[in-house]
Amino acid sequence: MNKNQIVEDFFYKQDQLMNEKLQIWLDHSLFSWQWWFGLLLLFISIIFWVKFRKKDSTNRLLFSGFFVVIFSSFLDLIGVSLGLFHYHYEIFPIASNYFPWSIALMPISIMTILQIKPNVNPYLKSAIYSAVVSYIVLPFLNLIGIYHLIKWNYFYSFLILNVVYLIAYFLVRRNNFEKII
């Protein structure tokens, strides 16, 4: 078998699996209570942030929030692709991440914490945030069948969330943007 045929066979199998995933999503996820729960989380978190953010810091917060979205989505892609964990009841069947978490809850929760008591030690805030998410939120998502650990440990999430929070903190504190001329 030549290289082109191997690649074609792989993409054929990938297409078949994607079709199967779509059918499973249509039959078992779409409109389930977990699906509605995810949709509700998505909209409530966005509405919360729009209403309660510091308006004068919106651009600064969004800068760090977009980093969180991109980085957490990338890490989810790696984790799911390597079989470390996976999600059920995705809002969109083509996503490998849990959209309400990566796109809304995680960045909005971090942006919210960044703006509350901004002079508190960032390492303390990071540790508290990471502990709450890793040992309360993620186990809850596991309990209700959304998040499934395979070769993963909540402690790994704790470490990664600390790093993500601290990078977001670093980004939100930047003052040296040049004007685009």
UniProtKB/TrEMBL annotation:
Keyword Membrane: yes
Domain of life: Bacteria
InterPro entries in alphabetical order: CBO0543-like (IPR048147)
Transmembrane segments: 33-50, 62-86, 98-116, 128-148, 154-172
Alphabetized UniProt keyword annotations: Membrane, Transmembrane, Transmembrane helix
NCBIfam families cross-referenced by the UniProt entry: CBO0543_fam
Name under which the protein is recorded: Uncharacterized protein
Source species of the chain: Anaerobacillus alkalidiazotrophicus
Lineage of the organism: Bacteria, Bacillati, Bacillota, Bacilli, Bacillales
